[in-house]
Design brief:
The complex is a heterotrimer of chains A (409), B (141) and C (125). With 409 residues, chain A is mainly alpha-helical. Helices cover 79% and strands 0% of the residues of chain A. Chain A is built from 17 helices and no strands. In chain A, α1 packs across α11 and α3 runs parallel beside α10. The longest helix of chain A has 43 residues. Chain A starts with a helix and ends with a helix. Chain C has a four-stranded mixed sheet, with no helix packed on it. The longest helix of chain C is centred in the C-terminal third of the chain and has 11 residues. Classes of the chains: A mainly alpha (409), B mainly alpha (141), C alpha+beta (125). Chains in contact: A-B, A-C.
Chain lengths: 409, 141, 125
């Protein structure tokens, strides 16, 4: 019974932890402008993140080491150095977007403006990082993030024309009012939102934090293979809500407040409140993960002591790095930059940074010196190679598309 | 060609883009007012939604004011666009006051606050139609 | 008496994790200081010994080239190395290492001063 509970917890936290501010905003924007004609991108992204998260977890569980340490040893300090710089930059951008998302969601829940919430959110994120145990942090944030299932509930309550939704998705039929270039720009953005780079080093470092061994591999696989696709369905329900309520009205999503209107229409103030709590939890959890990832990447590259399992005093550089990252994020947001715009930037640049973060994982997962008999099988490698091509294509196309479409306007 | 001017087609397209944004703001306002009138949405969420749309309208207005139309047609489209966006903004401001009044503010009887949701929605519909008209003349969807 | 082993410096030493006597991570090996057989400067074409492990700024010179005066770099004397395996294990604790000064400074002046900084997270439930 305890094993079943443990497995259920793992899956539930994977679902609840899947959606972050990037997924929320990008799926809603896409739903309001393209309906479900980009649903296939979510599917591609989910398979991709399953592939790489399970590889990253396997690497950590089998070798006992986290990603960056191995990358540094295997690929040398130059390659790993470029990787760390890019990873840290994109993780910092994502952290900024998440803290902004917390503030926006709290604004929805109260009449207090986001600017006042930003320092509060930053402080709260730091306090949890400082004191709360890793597992407790993951479980609480993950379970509360599950409240986002309110979007799926809303979708059913709206009683949509399922046939129409399906027709938009398969085969992908974008509305005639949008350019092809904009369609592909949002395809790249949605891909970047699903395949968040920080997930890879967070997953592998988390495996070391929780002291996984080869025995935990099966659990890892189940959590990922069930949890993430369900999380993907959650993302799609956010897009579908926008497609059903906002698209026909000609409403283009540019603010968090628009994203929750379909939920209000479907289920009234109660469902609305549930979803807002879910948004706060999901963005808060993601802020914790990105802050930790910023610490993990730098500390592992430089060989510092790291980890929440250590006394902060014994991982001083790691904690100082995270404090600086949170301060930087708060600082950027206090310049009154639009958090939604920061989010849109972060998902596109996530796509650009993807090859740098995923290629090393693919290489290391094939290395028998670290993996022993747990190296990638042929199927995983074949899939990994296909995704290598996709990831590189998305990375190369991202910036040109962004310029050509004026960031999707 | 004077510096900063676009091709006429481009300038009119820019007008259309700004009006698309304005129409989106109008529809969001309509949806929000409707949801609040039916008690589906909370006061803070409605207020935030309208505030966000005022920001969007601000952006659309700025895009129109900073345009340098190269010919008479695009100039006329721009003028029309500015007028309709301005009128729409006024209605959204009223809508926000209506939201505040509903949430218990001390605004009862103020000139700016519409009597009820229906009156507000009528004003909104009129302003939206004007935007749609301007949009279709600018060649928009 | 310890057995002799042939170790490839590039493969087994550079970029490897350095652990102190308690098994705690200290730093990654950023570079190695090579000296001549009797401890003076290494000369090309002659036998060399590893004098010390270099950490810190030597990472930049290793990545980008250039040189920094060796005596000013944070170093861990080779005599403090106990064992070379998948990681390099030292015979001293990190508190006693000059090279770990950043961590120790931050511990004493910043992290250790914030309430809860010395609290062991594994200790409470």
């Amino acid at each position: 019974m305890k094993k079943v509970m443990g497995a259920a917890l793992g899956i539930l936290t994977a679902i609840g932890g899947f959606v972050d501010i990037g997924d929320l905003v990008t799926n809603a924007v896409v739903g309001s402008r393209f309906g479900l004609s980009l649903a296939w991108v979510v599917a591609v992204g989910v398979v991709g993140i399953c592939l790489f998260a399970s590889m990253a977890g396997r690497v950590a569980a089998v070798s006992g080491r986290a990603t960056f340490e191995i990358v540094r040893e295997r690929l040398g300090p130059r390659v790993a150095g470029a990787n760390v710089v890019a990873s840290f930059a994109i993780t910092l951008l994502t952290l900024t977007a998440e803290i902004g998302g917390i503030a926006l969601a709290l604004h929805l829940a109260s009449s207090v403006e986001p600017r006042l919430w930003i320092p509060v959110a930053g402080l709260a994120v730091w306090l949890v990082l400082w004191r709360v145990k890793f597992e407790v942090m993951e479980n609480v944030a993950g379970l509360m993030g599950l409240l986002l299932v309110g979007f799926a509930v809303a979708l059913f309550l709206l009683g949509p024309d399922w046939g129409e939704l399906l027709r938009q998705a398969v085969p992908p039929s974008p509305p005639g009012t949008e350019h092809a270039a904009t369609y592909w720009y949002y395809a790249v953005a949605l891909f970047g939102a699903a395949m968040t780079p920080y997930e890879v080093f967070f997953f592998s470092s988390g495996a070391v934090e929780e002291r996984w061994t080869a025995k935990d591999l099966a659990t890892n696989r189940i959590n990922v293979l069930i949890g993430f696709p369900l999380g993907g369905l959650l993302s799609l329900s956010i897009a579908a809500c926008a497609a059903v309520v906002l698209l026909p009205a000609g409403i283009e999503v540019s603010a968090l407040s628009q994203i929750v209107l379909p939920v209000a229409q479907a289920g009234g103030p109660l469902l609305l409140a549930v979803v807002i709590v879910g948004i706060v939890a999901a963005t808060f959890g993601a802020a914790l993960e990105t802050a930790l990832s910023s610490g993990y990447s730098v500390a592992q590259y430089l060989g510092w002591s790291w980890g929440k399992f250590r006394r902060p005093a014994h991982a001083a550089r790691f904690h100082v790095t995270m404090i600086l990252a949170v301060l930087l994020g708060v600082g950027i947001l206090m310049t009154s930059v639009d958090p939604v715009m920061v989010t849109e930037m972060s998902v596109v640049f996530s796509a650009v940074a993807l090859p740098l973060t995923y290629v090393p994982i693919l290489v290391v997962a094939n290395d028998p010196q670290y993996m022993g008999r747990y190296v990638n099988g042929r199927f995983v490698n074949a899939l990994g190679t296909v995704y290598l091509v996709i990831v590189v294509a998305a990375a190369l196309a991202a910036v040109p598309l962004m310029i050509a479409t004026g960031a999707g306007s | 060609m004077h510096r900063g001017q676009q091709e006429p087609g481009q300038a009119t397209a820019s007008v259309a883009d700004a009006l698309v944004e304005a129409r989106s703001a109008a529809e969001t306002t309509r949806l929000t007012v409707d949801l609040l009138a039916r008690g589906r949405v909370t006061g803070p969420v409605a207020d935030t939604a309208l505030l966000d749309q005022l920001d969007a309208l601000d952006e659309a207005d700025r895009a129109l004011t900073t345009l340098v139309p190269p010919d008479v047609t695009s100039s006329d489209r721009r003028t029309e666009g500015l007028t309709t966006v301005g009128d729409l903004t006024d209605v959204v401001v009223q809508a926000r006051e209506w939201v505040a009044a509903r949430s218990g503010g001390d605004l009862a009887g103020a000139d700016a606050v519409p009597a009820d949701a229906d009156a507000l929605l009528d004003d909104l519909a009129a302003a939206t139609d004007a935007v749609e008209q301007a949009l279709s003349e600018a060649g928009g969807p | 008496m310890t057995r002799e082993r042939i170790v490839d410096a590039r493969l087994h030493l550079l970029s490897r994790q350095v652990l102190d006597a308690d098994g705690e991570p200290v730093r990654a090996v950023d570079d190695l200081e090579l000296t001549g057989p009797d401890g003076q400067e290494a000369r090309p074409g002659e036998a060399v010994r590893v004098g010390a492990i270099l950490v810190g700024p030597s990472l930049f010179t290793r990545l980008f080239g250039g040189a920094v005066l060796a005596s000013r770099l944070p170093r861990i004397a080779w005599s403090d190395v106990a064992h070379v395996g998948t990681a390099i294990e030292l015979s001293v604790r990190s508190d006693e290492l000059d090279a770990d000064w950043v961590e120790l400074w931050l511990r004493d002046h910043l992290v250790g001063r914030i309430p809860g900084g010395r609290h062991d997270p594994e200790a409470d439930g």
